[in-house]
């Protein structure tokens, strides 16, 4: 399993304002693509504890670029502190040819769809930073920073968190470990009540 170190924060500005901040600070668009995830879970693994439930999910992931696309089956595992900060996370992925057929295999094994997350990503970089702006399900705007990317390496979580202060980008609740899937689950099940 591949260990990941990243932070994800939901921002308190609109997309146009965020793009202006990027431009004003010399950021250049590196790539743009869509990441569409279908979270599958066995019915008996469903629970009120969303974070525990998400650790039981398998994802069918479509990664769509303007000129090509590819598909993965992905499993993510995250460990949390008492404050729900992510203290450790790992991921394993395997390329697949046909996401619909793979979904059917999982369905036959007793899995069902839990949620879908459609994520439009804009990856930006400048001389000191690289970030991914994520527009999730056409309603939530996040910035994700990975400790190691193709163009930059951050030495610590603090350095990654300082990005938001450095560029004066307000985030919701000072939360650097926003959990997109948990937010989507909360909204989905709140709507059903």
Characterization of this structure:
The protein has five helices and nine strands; from the N terminus they run ββαβαβββαβββαα. It has 193 residues and is of the alpha+beta class. It has a single domain (2-192), classed as Hypothetical Protein Pfu-838710-001, CATH 2.40.320. A nine-stranded antiparallel beta sheet has the order 1-6-5-4-3-7-8-9-2. The protein starts with a strand and ends with a helix.
Topology:
Blueprint: E1 2-3, E2 6-10, H1 15-24, E3 28-42, H2 50-54, E4 58-64, E5 69-80, E6 86-96, H3 99-108, E7 111-125, E8 130-136, E9 140-146, H4 157-166, H5 180-192
Antiparallel strand pairs: 1-6, 2-9, 3-4, 3-7, 4-5, 5-6, 7-8, 8-9
From the spread of the alpha carbons, the general shape counts as globular
Number of strands: 9
Unreliable spans: none
Question: Rg to the nearest angstrom?
Answer: 17 Å
Classify the fold: give the CATH topology.
Hypothetical Protein Pfu-838710-001
- Helical segment tally? 5
